[in-house]
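It is time I had a proper look at our fold encoding. Can you supply me with one protein entry, sequence and fold together? It will help me judge whether the discrete encoding reads sensibly. Leave the record below and I will have a look:
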Amino acid sequence: MKRSGALVAALAIAVALATPAAVAGKKGKTYEPPYKNGPSGGDSWNHVERDPESGQMAVTRVFPGFSPVVGCVPEPSGGWGMFRVKHDVKQPVSKVTVTFDAALDPYAWITVGARDERGEWLGVEKLQGPFAGSGKLTARLFERPRVGNTIFLEFGLQLGDACPQVSFAAASFPSIKVR
């Protein structure tokens, strides 16, 4: 698994070189790095690398599979990692948009969403690979937070689980906007 660290670092550098500039809008609030590390997880077959100072993230998974008599026993915990931004609601919020530059294999996702103070999702959206390039992903909130509340914007990468599997996702997140 230590060799995958070098691969992850190389992918993160390649993604960083192609990072687009953040675009500021008239309405809403835009956040740029540094971010906070949010939740992450996965089993021992995953490697999650996050740099909240630059907004870069990479997740790799190398799972060889273990063949029983018939088929392959899947491992149920693909890797994932999120960045997190605390947002004090001062005006109505209806959506959250993350800007990214990414390379995703077919079993990788970019995720963006917002949670309330209790950790409940207010809205979430995912983009599944394969994907290579720049883009924006918007999560429309199905439950709107009240002015005066605090919400947490979470965005990052997730891998599926399969048997056997070699999977990766790398992204740079130059901005996230609340509107």
Remarks:
- Residues 6-25 have pLDDT under 50 and may be disordered.
